[in-house]
Amino acid sequence: MKVILKQDIDQVGHAGQVVEVSPGFSRNFLIPRGLAVAATAGSVAQVEHRKRLVADGLARERRAAQELKERIETVACRIAREAGEEDRLFGSVTARDIAAALADEGFEIDHRAIRLDNPIKHLGIYHVEVKLAPEVIAQVKVWVVAKE
User: Fold this and answer.
1) Tens digits of residue pLDDT in 104-136
2) Would the pLDDT of 147 be above 90?
């Protein structure tokens, strides 16, 4: 029996996929629990329509992320911190600090989108990756300077 899965199910398939399963498995497990619906012509067309809508939304989101990437890569953030000998910071610069500096420049970026392997602990210029969307990663220049 062919069914359309509503959720990912291990060893069966992914959400939105049309799969062939035994009639008992679909009738007694998948359909009563709301995990799948019978694959009729109408339900298949409905799933294809939803897939197109999701794909259009993802494409729109990707275009917006590309535009944001182009704008954000022209900006250089300046973060002032107290520093000691050998340009070592008292404390460190974290992703939250960089997100706050970007907010001062007019970009609302979630701190979880900023990729820092380790917190910044020295004065200098750093290039930090910001994940704006899947497959869209911007490089932001961060200047860590001594506080005066």
Assistant:
1) 999 999 999 999 989 999 999 999 999 998 889
2) no
Beta pairing class for 88-93 and 76-81: unpaired
Do 106 and 132 fall within a single domain?
A: yes
User: Is residue 96 located within the same domain as residue 49?
Assistant: no
25 by Cβ neighbours in 10 Å (0-12 / 13-18 / 19+) ranks as middle
Task: Give pTM, 2 decimals.
Answer: 0.70
Concatenating the DSSP letter of every residue in 51-106 gives HHHHHHHHHHHHHHHHHHHHHHTT-EEEEEE-B-GGGEEEEEE-HHHHHHHHHHTT
Range of the domain at 11: 2-64
CATH number at residue 137: 3.10.430.100
Which CATH number is 30's domain given? 3.40.5.10
For tokens 């200047």, name the residue. Answer: 143
Q: Convert the pLDDT of each residue in 21-71 to its tens digit.
A: 999 999 999 999 999 999 998 988 888 898 899 889 999 999 999 999 999
**What is the CB neighbour count within 10 angstroms for residue 131?**
16
